[in-house]
Amino acid sequence: MRRAILALAALALAGTLLAAPAAPAAARTIRLGIVTTPGSAQHVCATRFQELAAQRSDDALRVKIFHSGSLGSETDILRQVQMGAVDMAIVTLGPLDTFVPEAAVVGFPFLFASHEQADAVLDGPLGTEVLAAMERAGFKGLAFSENGFRNLTNAVRPVHAVDDVRGLKVRVMESALDRELWQALGANPTPMAWPVYTELQQGTIDGQENPLSVIWLYRLHEVQPYLSLTGHVYSAHVGLAGLDWWNALPAAERTLLAAALRDAARAQRAWNREAEAGFLARLRQAGMTVDEHPDLESFKARTRGLRELPAYADPRVRALLERFLDATRPTQGETR
Description:
A six-stranded mixed beta sheet has the order 7-6-8-5-9-11. The chain has a five-stranded mixed beta sheet with strand order 2-1-3-10-4, with helices on both faces. It has helices at 2-19, 41-56, 74-83, 93-96, 103-106, 115-122, 125-133, 176-184, 197-202, 212-217, 243-248, 251-285, 296-303, 315-327; strands at 28-33, 61-66, 88-92, 139-149, 151-154, 169-172, 188-191, 207-210, 226-228, 234-242, 289-291. It is α/β, with parallel strands linked by helices. Helices cover 45% and strands 18% of the residues. Helix 2 runs antiparallel to helix 12 (251-285). The chain contains 14 helices and eleven strands.
């Protein structure tokens, strides 16, 4: 009798276990690094990606954002992604050229004439080729968002023509191409990690170059009285992941995350462009002297020989640059 009772109890317990709902799978936390502060272009993209990943996965994919340079410079963040200490990042394309030479192609001066042209090229086969090249350095390139067209600020004098740049100590990104570009323009380029407010305030450097959103959000108008809308480089951001980490994810998660980051990048680009006029108005109101129509032809004349730089010496990189130049070639009557 006792044995029969125990058997019935075991059957009842088994039935209860079978009827109980399965325990939910543990959420995956994704570590994503950016160097900029809340409100910045990178942070706008990162937070939108965070929202989309959570929504589309029923909160199973949770993105933790490490912002404001808490992980170091963009070069530091890229190394941590390579090592697996960070899963993903959104970085400026400039510092990536020391890891992925093809990245220097996108930052060629005066390459893109408009945001629309940049979108058409970077969202197309050429952009896909740049993203694919990142795999050789241990990254999975996923989507292009943007910093925007870069403009020059300084605390020494108004800059209208390229000769006005001569001798200015200009902070540049940790990028071989940026150093060579500003040397060609006559400046004294000084690579520095971001941010550089203190260095500008103390006069360690005379100026810097960045899109309008960065100039406003980092309060550079407080220490930089002169702004020239040179638009000399279209500054792309790229969302990427560590290749080994990415390949170890389930296929369904890779698909979801890739689509979420592409959609976040498109939303960020739209935000950036809608806000640009407002940033310029605020900088004017804050007292900056703005040259809206500098002599761009004088700048372009100094940059036309840059395709011969060492950054483009590798035959593979040079061939890609020529294809980018063909895809963005000015129409008749225009100059690059």
